[in-house]
Amino acid sequence: MQRAVLVGCGAMSKAWFEAARTIGDIDIVGIVDLATDRAEARAREFGLDGAMISDDLAAVLAKTGPDLLFDIAIPKARHAIVSAGLDAGCHVLSEKPMAETLDEARDLIQRAQRAGRIHAVVQNRRYVPQIRRIARLIRSGAIGEVTSLHCDFFLAPHFGGFREEMRHVLFHDMAIHTFDAARLFAGDTASAVYAREWEPVNSWYAQGSSAAAIFEFSNGAIFTYRGSWCADGLRTSWESAWRIVGSKGSIVWDGHDQIQAEAVTSGKDGLFSEVAAVEIPPLDASDRVGGHLGVFKDFIAATRGGPAPETAGAENIKSLAMVFGAIDSAEAGRRVEITI
């Protein structure tokens, strides 16, 4: 049985409590939130009567001596919370973004390495079944080498709370999911970006609700992103709408259940090459899915001697670097190199 402390009892925390209960052999011995009434409510909801409730993380860590720390707090508290967990000898799973700056992200990676502990990030949309199927189709070579990726993300959510006050809100809070998927599909690391942000007249966000970016990958592939969080009507999926172009064919995904692919066959039909539909592979045992639960399972398995989680900090920083690269470019008004 692994002992865990959970920090942050907002709406997102419910999925974490449910994942811990589903996996089993995890005893949540401490629940921390600045509003202790929220922590007490979660404890009652999940039958955790013996858990220590507090607004003081250091005190809970000292008293409970946990093996695991689950961090679901707001982004500005991320570095302090993850650092405290690693310094206390915990394996740490945190919400995204991994950190508020690349320097903080690098520091957390170094802390995890020094502590000999696993630090991973809930990049939960990497575990969407359709993303896994597309990634496997690309790896099969069915459309050849990926030459470009294009996606649209258009929604208009009224969150309230901290998101509506954030700077660079679309890039910083949401786009990392799409950027991470692009990195998975491209099988590479982004090397440069040119980005723009703007605020439509109908926006209810402080800054950065609408944006566009062109990323360059080191293998030569290009990724274009267009998005808005104040685009009412004809909304896309939360996973974006995608077109992935390869040297031998293309994949189109509506972000929901519909995936289509075509690849070049021999010969030409007049002006265009002949193409044929490509079968989309079904899920199989190798596909790691499940959203929050999928990330949770990989993390817990790693803490119990399994392979490193796919969303380990040292890997996830490559997606975070795309976010900060886009922000730096938007602020500078020019193309910038992406460094990790």
Automatic annotation (TrEMBL):
It holds the Pfam family GFO_IDH_MocA_C3. GO terms for molecular function: nucleotide binding. Residues 131-252 form the GFO/IDH/MocA-like oxidoreductase domain. Residues 3-121 form the Gfo/Idh/MocA-like oxidoreductase N-terminal domain. SUPFAM superfamilies: Glyceraldehyde-3-phosphate dehydrogenase-like, C-terminal domain, NAD(P)-binding Rossmann-fold domains. This is Putative dehydrogenase. It comes from Phyllobacterium leguminum.
